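FORM 7B - TANDEM STRUCTURE REPORT

SECTION 1: FIRST PROTEIN
SEQUENCE AND TOKENS:
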Amino acid sequence: MEVGGVQGYGGRNITFRSHVYWHEIAAFQLSEDTYESWALFAVTEGAFRYEIGGQEGLAGAGDLVLCPPGTLFARKVVNRLSFHFFFFDGEEGAGRWWSGRRGLKDRERLRANDCYLAAVGRLYPDADHPTRGLYLLDLLQTAELELQLAAVEKGDGQVDRDGTVLQEGEREDAVRMQSVVAWLTEHYADKLSLKEAAAQWQLSPVQLTRKFKAYTGETPMDYLTSLRLEKARELLLHTRLNLNEIAEACGYDNGYYLSRVFHSKIKMPPSVYRQRHQV
């Protein structure tokens, strides 16, 4: 790769333009906008609703949302939102990327890139520094690779507009499960059960689990746990709330139970996480 120049991606070329990180915004400065370059939102926390060229959806942590040049991008924050915002140009005649949302299954990769980009921002404060473009390239290549692997696993499945590979008859389930994702994202702090969630869409718990896992790669309860722990980590780092208060804000009965779940998934107690990561 030529520094500051063109970076190869899947047989196509891109030119990195700029990167900026937005942390815990409650609302977008503009509810809609149109860009001259490709615009990529890589969401690390929170959720927002979007409409791109007539395609609507909800994006949350681990999702990439891509808007083509000259296309109206409408958006509204659902939960306080943190995301990386990249601009890049595509070489003429190189073909189009996707438009809308793609969910990264490798969320740890996005978290790692998030940490590295924070360090890069301290070392190279210019938004157009080419080092930042390396992480844009990594995100695009990861999304492309996951899509190709899904296509191989699905055989002759069709690729939906948001990057999900679907067999015939699965599109209705995908729309339904996107609604479940939105509902969980908005109600993660409530006392929820699998039975209650299934009843919202007139499904049995077994049916909901099977359909949801086919759509997201996780069970509904695992997805809910991820949402709650993302919020717990945010509150540990950016507030002085004690563990019981954080547990209540995240949908857990008490700090003891939150601590057990946190230690199991994050591999350290909440108190240690706060000490190691709080600035």
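SECTION 2: SECOND PROTEIN
SEQUENCE AND TOKENS:
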Amino acid sequence: MRKTAKAMALLTAASMIMTAFTPVYAESTDTEDTAAVDWENGENIKAIKEKGVITVATGTYVPFEYRDDDDNIVGFDIDLAQYIADKLGVDMEVTDMEFQSIVPSIQNGEYDFSIAAMYKTDERCEVVDMSKSYCDSGMILAVKEDSEYADTVKSLADCDGLKVAVKEGATSYNVAQSFLDENPDVSYEIVQYKDTVGCVSDLLAGRVDVVVNDLLNQKILSQEYEGAKIVCDPFTHAENAIAVQKGKDDLLAFINECIDEYYADGTYDTLWTKWIDASGEGEEAAAAEDAETAE
């Protein structure tokens, strides 16, 4: 999907809401502290250096990863993945795939790590190891702005009797299903899609009534597909994390160290400005700042 500077401008409001989600490191018990791991002498790190390339699995989730007009995979996550590759002094090879295929590909060792705006959950941490948080986010609801539900839906409790669109295998599905499990007096139909574009497209076509989605992704889609309206503030808090195959403690330790440095050296702020906030100018703002620095 094409991302424009104008679309990124609308994310200023999103960044205001997201200030409540100041990035914090994950404290889940599912990922042990890797600070003491001697990653420099680890066999996985040595193997990556020997082949000279680190392989990365990703999906499609604007503004974190997507194909631009020249068919290049770009976005917040891709820049962070490149930062990690540069720290290791190797090239980067990125493969995009359907979201539900990403975790199995890491489990099988097909790629060195995945980065795909993936929320860190207990379920995922049972099958892969996940890094510290590199960006925090949350779930919201969106409706068609001229629908009869535009002023009545503010929470999942208001979706009784409606069709609710979610991304297949993603947190949006888990959130929608968990609410039903915990609230038997509420009943709505969950409709799953391979990507969030499908969710929003069918929302605007009237085939579903509500979309459950990540705030930042929905802000972009609401611009690209006019007519979708966000109707609430984020009602969950989640940590985006990088996944590696279980047992690759050296690689996980190295990635965690990179995340520490990415916060400390200002890279996080740079990527947030370039891809999410940008004060209304998107990538053009970041390029202008680079030009001013060079002068």
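SECTION 3: OBSERVATIONS ON SECOND PROTEIN
Confidence is low (pLDDT under 50) at residues 1-32, 278-295.
The longest helix spans residues 249-264.

SECTION 4: SIGNATURE
Preparer initials: ____
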